[in-house]
Amino acid sequence: MLKDLWKRRLDLVEEKLVAELRENEALNETLCSAMKYSLMAGGKRLRPVLLMAAADAVGAEGDAYVTTGCAIEMIHTYSLIHDDLPSMDNDDYRRGKPTNHKVYGDGIAVLAGDALLTMAFEVMLRQKGATPEQLVAIVREMSTAAGSNGMVGGQVIDLESEGKKIDLQELRKMHMAKTGALFRAAIRSGAILGGATEAQLAALTTYADKFGLAFQITDDILDVTGNEETIGKPVGSDERNHKSTYVTLTSLPEARKMALDTIEEAIDALEEFGDEADFLRDLAGYLMERNK
Amino acid sequence: MLKDLWKRRLDLVEEKLVAELRENEALNETLCSAMKYSLMAGGKRLRPVLLMAAADAVGAEGDAYVTTGCAIEMIHTYSLIHDDLPSMDNDDYRRGKPTNHKVYGDGIAVLAGDALLTMAFEVMLRQKGATPEQLVAIVREMSTAAGSNGMVGGQVIDLESEGKKIDLQELRKMHMAKTGALFRAAIRSGAILGGATEAQLAALTTYADKFGLAFQITDDILDVTGNEETIGKPVGSDERNHKSTYVTLTSLPEARKMALDTIEEAIDALEEFGDEADFLRDLAGYLMERNK
Question: pTM value?
């Protein structure tokens, strides 16, 4: 079930992203091309898929919220473009392709990221079947998650901890902001759009935080055990760069155990839900098996 | 009247910006400091003041919308930080102070800009006395104005036309996007919050577009006639950089005439308004006398 539904929704997202890019056709060709280059570079579309699965879980039809899913994918993509810049992580490859600034230059890469972040807010307002109250709530979720106390704040901590050894608690705080907040926004936005009750929203928020943590631990594991071609970037880079990760701060078996426990906690958070939440359960389970 | 009211509202904006920064206290000190450095570097606060004046014009109390005014000032500040980067205009000074990346480095400057743009959307949702419909409308105005068909798109055209001679029509198109769109969003947002009718909104949009054009022409004039200390950056830089401007493409007297005519058109657009629109009229008139 997992793979079929994921693939179907991934296709839905791809299709909608192309449509939204066309709708927003920028007044400048270079900018258009740079935005499209990174936005359509593949990827698992995990955040939109989580958003739709959260809507399912509260009894709505997840497919209906693909527009907001695309908006969050734009925020995710912008963050990758900026993180890859020479003044930050200085990465030359992403998903097996040269990074945005390698193709378009640093200036255009900054601006393509800026434009994608801004476009996300335009696009989420185009979500059909949402009340103005729901739209306001989603804009709030996304802006809080992406901002100085979320994604951007986490990236600053990451930059500042380069070459320094940080402890498990700091590592957790950094990732909670850098990647966790956006998973939380995806899941909470899907729940809000689907009409979640307060109790459902609280349970799904717990699921989201556990999911985000497990995602990061398995990401660190993949950097050691992954296949370079499959993940599209060099493996072992964390160790080479003396980066603190869940693996380097503990050990591979310990990190695996931590990931398993966290996935279990994520699934446990869904106990009040029926089989409408099966896709969310499967998505948590997938984290242990993922190879990219 | 102009100076007193402007000064009073400028103080209101400064105070509110400090409060909003405190409210959003970033989880990282460096980021906080970099955001504050540029946001509190002075400036005329022209966009918030225009927003409040537009609310006045439709019979509301402009002061009430200082929160949304602060949000637009954050968008404006983020754009200055990114435009100043070495990969773009490579400017070392802004308002008489070293630019953000000169103080904090390129990476943090990119992130401080990102955080301010994102925070703007958080802050505008905190506007009191606005309906969810109005909040959605404002988010739409701001995201459209700041995005790939507005400010960011204009900056890309600006980057690409460096060293090239462009004609008056292209220059206008570039500025309409790069600076005009945000003036338009400021004025339209103030009008929407103040409860403008469709006809009022249309008239104020015309005013906004004329204002934006006149602002740019007088900006180009200032680059030739301005005092370096007063404007806080080197004068004559446009000519040195072989930039096409309203002055270099015509002449100083012709640019002055064009500015005067455009200001008159801006004021004419307000003919259906009573003295509630006097502040907007004064603000248009000020463009001809400004020395920074």
Answer: 0.96
